[in-house]
Amino acid sequence: MRIIDGAGVWTPPPTGEANDWVEHLRVPALSVGTYCIPAGGVDNQSPHTEDEIYVVSTGRATIVTPDGRAEVGPGSVIFVPAGEEHRFVEVTEDLTLLVVFGPAYGSLAPQR
Questions:
Q1: Domain that holds residue 84
Q2: CA-closest candidate to residue 80, choices 47, 42, 58, 107
Q3: pLDDT score at 50
Q4: Where does the Cupin type-2 domain start and stop, copy by copy (predicted)?
Q5: Per the domain annotation, does 9 fall within a domain?
Q6: What total of structural domains would you count in the chain?
Q7: What is the pLDDT of residue 110?
Q8: Is position 33 within any domain?
């Protein structure tokens, strides 16, 4: 067992950065991290090679995918399949997302 301290807790982005991403746990089958976007911020992520689950801890925003858009807030759980374009827009309150990747983030990306 392992308790993951700080997962899903708001952290302001470092000075000069748009967002804050911290990976808290990584094993071959999955990884867990926290992604924070400040109110009014821009989500600049690209599609991932792994399936992804977001759990909104705090804040409000709209998620946009090719299938449509939906407002999300505390308690929302969002599944994004590998390779799907997605972005959080209209971030009206500091957004904190607990993120679970399966398998671990970047593990299926082509090796350079």
A1: 28-102
A2: 47
A3: 97
A4: 35-101
A5: no
A6: 1
A7: 84
A8: yes
In a domain, 21, yes or no: no
> Is residue 13 one of the residues assigned to a domain?
no
Distance CA(13)–CA(49), nearest Å, equals: 24
- Structural Rg of the chain based on CA atoms: 13
Report pTM.
0.93
CA distance 7 to 16: 23
Say if residue 112's pLDDT is above 70: no
DSSP-derived secondary structure for 35-103:
EEE-TT--------SSEEEEEEEEEEEEEEETTEEEEE-TT-EEEE-TT---EEEEEEEEEEEEEEEES
Q: How confident is the model at residue 17 (pLDDT cuts 50, 70, 90)?
A: confident
CA distance 47 to 58: 23
Q: What per-residue string of b and e applies to 38-55 under the rule 16 or more CB within 10 Å gives b?
A: beebebeeeebebbbbbb
